[in-house]
Amino acid sequence: MSAQPSWKNDFSVRQSEEQRVARRQFLKFACCSAAVFGAAWLTKGKLLTPRVATESRFVARIGEIPVGGSKLFRYPTESDPCILIRLRTGRLAAYSQSCTHLMCPVHFNAEKNQLVCPCHEGFFAAEDGRVLAGPPRRPLPRHPIEVRGQELWVLPAKAEIE
Residue 105 and residue 115: Cα distance in Å, rounded? Predict the structure, then answer.
């Protein structure tokens, strides 16, 4: 009988058993999975669904935003930053302020008539939110605006008809 090297005594897991899952590891995995599914069920899936606006919201009075100016607001929830801009033509446009690349905040550059993401040099057209340059591949989400007298209201997006 040959003597085993001392390191084999220190590492008692045999190569044939190294892929075996221990009961404790399996129970940890099962409990964590159950907790995730339970949380999703308790919140009725709201953790994974996008926030959709259902109500209109007052944003500003017309006189508050000069031509070439902008105003930040939150819509549809307080966690969703948006930007309202008044173009050189006097037309109004509202967009999500979160860049579609990595969610950095975009800013309005009135001189170039563009929305700029400083994080990775993304550029969007102020007229319609389309991508002009940089890493973003999708346009900025747009919010409809309605003028009610001297007030500007942001409206929920209309549902797409399939």
Answer: 10
Q: State residue 96 phi and psi, 5-degree precision.
A: -65, 140
- In a domain, residue 159? The reply is no
Residues in the chain: 162
Q: H helices of 43-102, where?
A: none
pLDDT in tens, 107-137: 999 999 999 999 999 999 999 999 999 999 9
Q: Is residue 161 part of a domain?
A: no
Give how many domains the chain has, as a whole number. 2
| Strand ranges in the chain using DSSP code E only, listed in sequence order | 57-61, 70-74, 81-86, 92-96, 107-109, 114-117, 122-125, 131-133, 142-143, 145-148, 151-154
Predicted confidence (pLDDT) per residue in 135-159, tens digit: 999 999 999 999 999 999 999 876 4
Residues 26 and 74 in one domain: no
Residue 107, domain extent = 57-154
Q: ∠ CA(88), CA(63), CA(90), 5° rounding?
A: 20
What's the predicted TM-score (pTM) here? 0.66
Residues 69 and 145 in one domain: yes
Position 34 scores a pLDDT of: 85
